[in-house]
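We close this part of the discussion by returning to an individual protein. Part of our work consisted of pairing the sequence of a single chain with a tokenised description of its backbone. No coordinates are needed to read the tokens, only the vocabulary itself. The amino acid sequence and the backbone structure tokens for this protein are reproduced below:
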Amino acid sequence: MNFQELRIGYVPVSNNFKQPTDRRRFCHYASKRNISFEIAKPSESYDVVIVTQVGDLSLWRDYNKGKVIFDFIDSYLAIPKNNPKGLLRGLGKYAVGQSRYLQLNYWKALESMCQRADAVICITEEQKQDISKFCQNVHIIFDIHTNVVRHVKTDYSSSKVFNFVWEGLPENLHLFSEIQGVLKYLKSKYQIALHIVTDLEFYQFFRKYRKRHTTDIAHKLFDNLFDNVYLYGWNEQLCSNIITACDMALIPIDLNNPLASGKPETKLMLFWRMGVPAVVSATPVYTRTMQRCGLSMACRTQQEWQETLERYIIDMSARQDAGQRGKTFAENYYSEEKILAQWDSLIASVL
């Protein structure tokens, strides 16, 4: 069937489609395949509706005017049922108007959405196992980074200052507390700098409340650690230039947080597509991906972080090998055309 003839509705993360989930997932696919879509309304009939996880599940779980695909990319089902934020999530979404109807048990709301969906998208095998209890048509589809990767690293030599880089949402900067002791130790032996590529301001709650400035968070995290911290506003045109000018990427994660530790290898693939070596926390996904790539750069303990970072600080050939291995791996297993074909298969599965 020609997908261009379908009436497709999309429930975006942001109505201007600027959020990463919009840019790197369905919207990118639709652009590449010349597929038209509109912002979905529950009152309208569609051939297919793609609902992101920030959509109003209290409405879309009962939608009966077309096929529904639920793009469910975070590991909310893995969060313990006594988690305070999890217990308040449903009430919070209702209070701020993100849900028309109150859903006190947000785990149940997500489960109901998965049961209603004709297909569910996720990004990891662990997520697929959780979701498969509620929907049998589950597809793993990765983010597409083509528009971001405009420059690839070729020079792996470092200057007197060794430059680390981190990219991500500002609300995740706090994860550097996981390796503050390691960075403090490295600073005592080497000249190091940290380059942070992120949004310079954000809303802490429900994407609309309590505006925060990223500089304030950076000061609290790093002022007593070291001086060489540089903050860059996220920009699609310049992002890869900043990242590839650095020597190594860092991806610290709280391994005791199910939502954080259940995230996919999205950020790692972004760095690898640019040929940038990365040291990461040993989440199940990162550990598995590093093993598949033949690298030992996933760290569980402070000692492992320290030893791994020191090794790559002093060994340019190891950095080059890691960067090039990662780039080859990303190109072989996460190419744009493979991901576009996965979207084709997904949509065909519900028609």
The two ends are 9 Å apart (CA to CA). The chain has two domains: 3-142+336-350, 162-333. DSSP finds 15 helices and 14 strands in the chain. Residues 289 and 320 are 18 Å apart (CA to CA).
